[in-house]
Design a protein that fits this description.
- 33% of the residues are buried.
- The strands form 5 sheets. Strands 8-19-5-6-9-16-17 form a 7-stranded mixed beta sheet, sandwiched between helices.
- The chain is α+β, with helices and mostly antiparallel strands.
- The chain has 26 helices and 19 strands.
- 52% of the residues lie in helices and 12% in strands.
- The radius of gyration is 47 Å and the shape is elongated.
Amino acid sequence: MSDDNFDINELLEKIKSTENPYTDDEPEQKWNKEDIDKLFSQDEPDVREPEPAVVEDEPQKKSFFKSAKSAFDSIASSIRKKSSEFIENIHIEAEEKCIVPEENEYDDDEDEELAEEEELESDDGKTKKIFIEKPGYVIKKGQADDSELEGAPTIMSADTVREEELEKSKGEQKSIPEDESIEGQIFFNGFDKNDEDVNHISEEDAEKELFKRRKARMDQFIVFKEKDSDLLNDEKSEKIGELFEQNKERPRKKDSDKFDGVEYTKTEDEHRVLRYLRMQQKKSKTRLTALGAILGLTIIIAILSSISTTVGGDRILTIFSSLVTISLALIVSSQSIVDTFEKLKKKEITLNTAVFAAAILCFFQNLLMFILYFTDKNTVSVFSGMGVVMLFLSELNKYVVLGRTIDTMEMCTGKNSDKLFSIEGINDDKDTVELAKNVKHPSPRIRYSCKTRFPAHLIELCTGETAADKFVKLAIPIGAVFGLINLIISWVKQGDFSTGFAAFVITFSLCIPAYGALLYQFPLRWINNKFNKDGGMISCQTAVEELCRTNVIMLDSKDLFDREECTMRGFKDFKNVRIEDSMLYAAALVIRSGGPLVGVFDGMVNSRREILPAVKSFSYEERLGISGWINEQKTILGTRAMMLTHDIQIPETVDEEKYLISGQEVLYLAIAHKLAAMIVVNYAPDEKIAPLLKTMRDSGVTILVNNCDPNVTEEMISSCYDMRLNNIKILNSTSGRVFKKYNTRPKMAAKAMSIHDGSAYSFMKSLCVASSLRRTFKISDLLMIIGTLMSFVIMLVMSCLQAVCDLPAIFAIMLQLLLSCAFFGVIKLVDTK
């Protein structure tokens, strides 16, 4: 187009035809960017300046072409902008037409993958629709025992399998040994890898080493002037170090009116309390060794004096030697005597109170014989050896208690501190009434296992009173009365006060059962030594009495079976749902319920529960089955009755009787109102708890079972463990919620009566051990009474026969020792049955 023949109207018409490329007569044409650019490259006029033809018309032509050029440029730029947007929209529509699939119904038989549609916001603010495929799974089929069933499969995520294969391939790559050099490899000095062995030391040794360093620093640190520097001599420095050590090692005391000892009140004190107890045990062992040596010397003196009533041919030497031994024994036990009289000020009378009173009486009887030797040739024996025997038995009891307390502390701390459970009762009256509906006991005392974070009053309970401390409150007045009777009889018969006082001392000492506490502490120590290895402990006799009041316990059904031995024999696929969906949905429901079959389905997914779908609106229908919503599909797992209740059609040709007859159990799975599979499972009773259940059956204890498995019934449990039906009760839904409220709610601190590791075995064994200890303690009560009465009768006969003055000291000592050993043997024999 030349500049002379330029027509603006013709240009505008061409622009309009470009903006609307589609006409009614012509079919729709697809445009792309290259075509439009080509179009504009052809239609764009040449805007170069024309050569001047006529000089006089040049100003007019220049102004006209200048305005036309600017108008055309603005129109062309707007056209380019609109065309680029038009092309981009065409490309987006074409991509969407290629991506969006046609809608079709899901076909289970063809095993098609569903897609989940999500909307994401793009950078320019527009919403794009994308589609994410369902995660893939790899199924490894298992082998079934029955040819009609399919084996339990193993389901794994495809991503997991791919990662494992990559790791395996990396592991198979040839690695270069560290010591082998590569040809051409460059070595630099200072980069040799010479790892030195780490010096491992115990925490206690490290603290001792740290204390030594601190002590050395303290010795060098001077805060006084030179004139006061003599205060920092070696002696003072050692005292400062001792005070520092005592202040560091001394654990915190518990504020209690009844307990003055060191208590374990927080987890941070466990090492210090243990060190304190071990230190006390070491001191007790030292005192016990010293008292044992003194007792041996006393026996030798008594034997020599019984031969000729003298030692070395001189009676005064016998009396003096006995006086020295009883004095040494009292000095060794001085700290225990002081502690006992401190308790006596608070009106607390224990067995040690009577023991130390008898030992002091023996001392005064010996002292009286020593004084009367110079005024009267009295031939009454000295019975100070009886006091030594009683002090030895008292220290032995303390040593046994400390050892048992240390064992209990070690079980409740360290690696076991995060799995402590206590045996608790139901305190809420409403909950007790609800649970009592399931039992026939007029006054049910229900116990359950509760997780706790801290065992409170541990030291106080372990070192608490026994029945011997209660019996001695009766034995002291009885022994005093019996002793006074013998004193009067001997005094009247012999006409000598020293003989009567000797009869009083020996009668009172024999009537005080110094061995009494050991009749309770020995069984507790023997049983706890075994029970601690099984993850449990019983702290004291009070705990035994408390546990023996139990007549109802609560358990979960999973605790009655060996979850590792429960198996899936196989399953029958009804071809209505994909296999992986069926097994994943079933596993999700069972693991959500927490029943005995959790291990079976957990193993099916290799314990990778993250691949399981979420279960919503989970519910349990009593004795029928469980259900829930999974991926917006109603999923039901239960018995045949459960399927019929929910109108799920079950083919009559399904033969489940042969599995039921052979001891197997059957579960049906339905998904989205379609029968998916029939699962055949096997429940394995826990043989470890079988004897414990029989013991509880004989004791009349009722077992309340919380259950979400329709196959677990009273009849099934009764047949597995040979129990009476009236001893077992499956909780209904309301009572089950009460059980879960207590079972799943941990206590910050629980009284350390009985602590165990949370297993059903240790829980039930605590009750059985308590029952066994109670029978032993009844025998201990009887033995204490027999020992007291027998001692009184022997001394009464001796007094009547006027034989007290002729009674050798060795007789009284051996009577105490033989009586104690005989009673210990009886207790040991009863404990081993």
